[in-house]
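User: Earlier you gave me the apo prediction for this protein. Now I'd like the version with pyridoxal-5'-phosphate bound, so I can compare the two side by side. Same sequence as before, with the ligand SMILES added.
Assistant: Got it. Here's the input I'm using:
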Amino acid sequence: MRTRRTFSPLPDGRCLLEGHKLINLSSNDYLNLAHDPRLISAAASALQEMGVGARASALVSGRTEWHARLEAALADFEETEAAILFPSGYAANLGVVSAIASEGDTIFCDRLNHASLVDGCRLSGARLRVYRNGRLERLRRELEKAASDGKRIIVTDSIFSMDGNQAPLIRLCELAEEYEAILVIDEAHGTGVWGASGRGLAEACGVEERVTIRIGTLSKALGAMGGFVTGSSGLIDWLWNRVRTQIYSTALPPAICAAACAALEIIQDEPERRRVLFERAEFLRNELSQRPHVTVPLSAGPIIPVILGDPGLTMRIASELKDVGFLVGAIRPPTVPEGTSRLRVSVTYAHQRDDLERFLKALDRSLARIGKSG
Ligand SMILES: *Cc1c(COP(=O)(O)O)cnc(C)c1O
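And here is the structure of the complex with pyridoxal-5'-phosphate:
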């Protein structure tokens, strides 16, 4: 049974849980924008102006001036012609993948892809071919074997959510081009964090033009809520007419769109947030990788998996850390493969060097106890 707890987010990367103040190393608010006064005041004035809910789906009467501004701001940010919004990143992935694929097509899916992409694959009715994380020889063999009548569609997270590692986007583009496959990438953990301008891993790898469909979320580094796709007017018009999770769901609240607009401005105006975030993450990853009893894969960026292996031990250490003031995700199967239970540590721009040093000391005390108990 998974426990249901109630958290109160606080500024500065902290939260309250059952009356205790914790340093929150389990949040996806990478740039510390969810509590930013500029987002709050943008949302507050839109709330006063337009009320709370959008009252209808976007195609009926739910698309307000704030939705239109956010679409334009996203297209501008991503240097594309147009954008479309979704109620969540989950809805974007589910809806887009199930709209572009159908029976007779073949979808190639990395085994570590997010559940929303996997569910989209299943809903589409297409054949599904799963390859082990980043194993492109296997992907190539499957592409080779795929029937030549239907479409071939490669679907991948850009940054894998539980491991923080990067998809091999350049080589995926090459394979997609060689086999005339559509390439769909989910930048949920890329947007705002990766790339010189914060457009994601595709920007960092210089392959934005070569990716067929780029999906992002407003719920993580942008500190708001919702999903989006940016691309050519042709693609976006097609999605407006086809994607059921957008057509048959109420539009985002206008105040959320106003907050996301403010977040996009900050991401563009304050690139030092990304630089500082990567520096802090590098410090913490480097320190964690020197600890006994754990495996920390080589990578970069704010998601740092600290693999302990055993689910019971992982839960115990997360609970001990919570007792001394640190909240980290304890991730077990089926979310991750058997034998790879882990603490999922995520650093944000809010966390100071001193917070991270205190976390390392607390973790060391817990790890020392494992040594003693065998
Ligand atoms: C969180 C996440 C999503 C879902 O985004 P929401 O906006 O939270 O619904 C999709 N893909 C990946 C890889 C994610 O980590």
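For your comparison, keep in mind: The radius of gyration is 21 Å.
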